[in-house]
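lol ok so funny story. i was supposed to be doing the assay writeup but got distracted and ended up predicting the structure for this chain instead. priorities right. anyway since i did it might as well share w the group, maybe its usefull for someone
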Amino acid sequence: MAHEHHHHHAHADVDWAAMAPLLESEAELLTPMYRRIANWLGERGARPGLIVDAGSGPGAVTCVLAEAFPDARVVAADGSEPLLERARMRAARLGLTDRFSTVAGELPGALAELEYPADLLWASRSLHHLGDQRAALAAFADRLAPGGVLALLEGGLPPRSLPRDIGIGRPGLEARLDAVETERFTAMRAELPDAVTETEDWAGLMTSVGLRAPVTRTFLFELPAPLSDEARTCVVAEFRRRRDKLADGLDATDRATLDRLLDPDDKVSLYHRPDVYVLQAHTMHTAVKA
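and the output, tada:
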């Protein structure tokens, strides 16, 4: 599953507005994990007055953070105005409008519009869409208040939803999808404006821009088979996305397997299989501004 930007290793011209329903449904499915992360930040001493979600998308996680820290004002910042409109609608539905606002513009420059420095700056898989990640981290750090926390969700492990051998095609389909997606991600990064190659040592990069006390923790998210209809729908949507984006990097056998998995009339498809599950590992990196 894509879980917001994690495996959406798409090119810069991706239509985020068209992706909005998938982004929202996946974030909603993962809400228990995001709540665990927010609680962990609170246990580590976070008492933010101002939270900024840098690369908020449609605001599902922004609203989780708002609910986890009821005394905080929350700002959703994103380059897509259609996604921010969905974020505002979500905040209104949840009764958060009085402490919720948005900033539209490309990161990290849009953060210059903030009236106050942030006590918690959350960036969930938005950093890897920026060409110069070190410079972006420096800009993030610059927008933190003293003692403020940068919470960076990057990395983890590729998600899994099927057994290695699914009884059709060659075993190991998901691993081969991952391999193609990794190559596409590398190509996407290379094509970004001002692209700089960095070793993805996130703790090291955060300390290189002046933040201190880096801490890394990985959060597991698991929904065992049999899945709810809601979870199954998310898995189907993610496999369809991967079929559309990655098919030309796969051989004919794997393409045929994907087509069967996505055929609602096929009894071995994702729509009917009893062995479909969700297993993900998401890694959070935090550091503090002195």
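The chain has nine helices and eight strands. Residues 2-12 have pLDDT under 50 and may be disordered.
back to the writeup now i swear
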